[in-house]
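Researcher: Please generate the 3D structure of the following complex. Treat every line as part of one assembly.
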Amino acid sequence: MTTLISLDARTGQPTGESWPASTTADIDAAVRAAHAVAADWGASNGLARATLLRDLASALEADREGLVTCADRETALGSPRLNGELDRTTFQLRRFADMAERGEPFRTEDDPAVTGAPPVGHPAMQRQRVPLGPVAMFAASNFPFAFSVLGGDTASALAAGCPVVVKAHPGHPALSQRVHTLIQAVLARQGLPAGLIGLVQGAGIEVGVALIRHPLIAAGAFTGSTRGGLALQAEANARPRPIPFYGELGAINPVVALPGALTAQGAELATTLAGSITLGCGQFCTNPGLLVMLDHPATYTFIGQLQAALAALQPHPMLTPGIRQAFDAGVAQLLQAGADLVWQSQGQGTAPGPHLLTVGAQRFMAEAALREEVFGPSNLIVRCADVEEVLGVLMAVGGSLTVTVWGVETDTADHRALVRTAMQIAGRVLFAGVPTGVAVTRAQQHGGPWPASTAPMTTSVGDAALDRFLRPVCLQDAPAWLQARAGVPC
Amino acid sequence: MTTLISLDARTGQPTGESWPASTTADIDAAVRAAHAVAADWGASNGLARATLLRDLASALEADREGLVTCADRETALGSPRLNGELDRTTFQLRRFADMAERGEPFRTEDDPAVTGAPPVGHPAMQRQRVPLGPVAMFAASNFPFAFSVLGGDTASALAAGCPVVVKAHPGHPALSQRVHTLIQAVLARQGLPAGLIGLVQGAGIEVGVALIRHPLIAAGAFTGSTRGGLALQAEANARPRPIPFYGELGAINPVVALPGALTAQGAELATTLAGSITLGCGQFCTNPGLLVMLDHPATYTFIGQLQAALAALQPHPMLTPGIRQAFDAGVAQLLQAGADLVWQSQGQGTAPGPHLLTVGAQRFMAEAALREEVFGPSNLIVRCADVEEVLGVLMAVGGSLTVTVWGVETDTADHRALVRTAMQIAGRVLFAGVPTGVAVTRAQQHGGPWPASTAPMTTSVGDAALDRFLRPVCLQDAPAWLQARAGVPC
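Model: Done. Output below.
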């Protein structure tokens, strides 16, 4: 049996804590416990859900110092970032609490009966939504709070009325255990069953596969690598009874920087972009991995400005030695596929220096290996002869969480084509700033065409994340007692 | 190359018309033509879409007599049913026209910028929806108008801003050609490209597979058999770039008839149910294939009433000889799997008599073969000892377009459990009447957990069918000219 070992991300040394991986029996017990509470939680009202979510947020805040210390040891993300991420996590929990209390999960659409023959006449119909049931939630390495045990997937599933079994990320086992212990205390205080939020863990893929295969699991939610997500999606589809699988798989997030924008504010944009490339050592699914520019003097000036801005930043250790190795391998693959190194700064230990590479548009479009995400502080500059080539580069990317377009303030045919193409391949299109930093709002869309997401019609961040766990059901000629429940399932 | 031959459904004899199956080059040309118009149609406004949809509806009505005659020859569904289906089809077209004109496809969600640090502060964000692009639409055998060339899938995709390439059903090739000729005339009159609504056809699976594999196809919509739908879904998932596939695969549509309802109005319910079992010779995805009843005197009285009501009805020819053979094979499979024949009436030629079969709940739960849909006028009566067994039977069904529950007018624990379980496995739960007849309304949900649908979170009938073809995109800090487009893509 594999053992999970908590490692200090800065030294790679064990912190002294370790846990056995969950056994098949453990996984079965966690899913059965979640299933046992599914009907009751699904029939709970909005206030009950909101109370749980708010108490979970308060419990995180009450243990802030200990949690951040623990997270920093295991991830090296640093106290400011981790405090900010904790704020975001509690904000999410309270936002979904508000949605539950407002009745969002219980929203109904009424079609009163219309007399007469069809197609005009019809019986009384009411469209409601029912919670899917136990959700398998796969935590991410790079957001130990916001996309982990009590992250957005868990918060939205609970608000929707679904129990959750979390597969903790092996990169931060001590933190996952600590958060789960807090959760259990909150559940006990509220008299809720422990199985409402279960936790399993494992260092390899076996535990996750066993979890998504379990017949009582009703949906999966995943944030992580393309390889891991596609493997789990294949498992979800291969079940005797396939289930929805919401996989957010990362992206290369092109930034199209037109000469107009670079001329107007190149220095400022270079600083902003350098910060985004290196933020959290580039370990973000929204990290800008691609810079698409036209052959123009402003472009060359900008590359120099970007280099200078990157050189001024301190290297930052990566989450795990494995991620560090994968970064080096990813850069090597880009070079092998025909990219040239423009500049790199020296790294320190587990902290790689940022890398700038470049390639021509035609080569980029021809070589699939150039379009693979490199998780870390690298950026591939794609040189385009004209707007037509920029469009071709975007279409070759095909799917991304975000596309950023700088310099389309005026309504021209070229700008329209750029915007249309950007919208065609991305879930979010930015016209200023950088893609890192995903706001938790009503209008957010965090997802995108394949390979960015396995379910591009849905979002894993923002209010609409709730919809992933509620299936529409139409009640026809419902009896009065059922209508009186106002959308709360039985 | 396979030739498509139009057959008279009553005699099985050729009507004299035939067409070559679409070649690979035909399919490629149709998809390329659809792709060529995708950007313009996606950027069209609601009035343009509404005008097209309304003219298509009028064109169908103007040729009503010829269309119904043609459809009746190829399907034997009869003039009253086919006229009704044509009404429903034009109603659908006009309903989606109204939605487009009202601006439903262009609905936006605005989050104005909020100053301050995240997570509270955020940039200006607007959530819009973009049309997916060319949709491959697979027509059904049993609804030659409403789920065929100009059916709900085509209407909703066009309203969403997507071109369509229809794979016609080989059971009614002459009708499909006739409708497509009408369409082309309407497109020409409006000055729209012919490629906006393409048609391909083939007798085997090859044409459909080539269509869903085409790299420029952006989504699939299918109504038909479980086998055909799952095969196409597998193709959609196996593409280098997987795409959404909306497959509506049929169901066995349990009717739970509790003794209270049977005692109160058994004779009336028997007549209604007999009509539903035999409607269109049982060739509906919402045909009630399962009758779940408790061991009670009222149950036995009802079975006699149902038998009498069925005996009074005339047998009706099936759509094709192949469907007739599959019906016989399906009944034989139920008998082999342990069901007993209760009663059957004599058939005539291609018109099978209705069959009533029965089996105990335990056997039903143990034998997967008893849960397979038999497309045609048969019904399997499942005898249950108690409500617990009824719940077990429903859970064994697992997924269905509908569940009907008669006799839960009062709020009791048993009734809640029945409703909860019915809602868990179905897209629509009825408390009166019968599942055949799917109203086209705002609240309709035509879909359900696997195996009823490959995409149970979506509906193929009703207003929400539009949502299947629109992917959310968030615009962050959009320039003024783009915001001024009010949700209409570039």
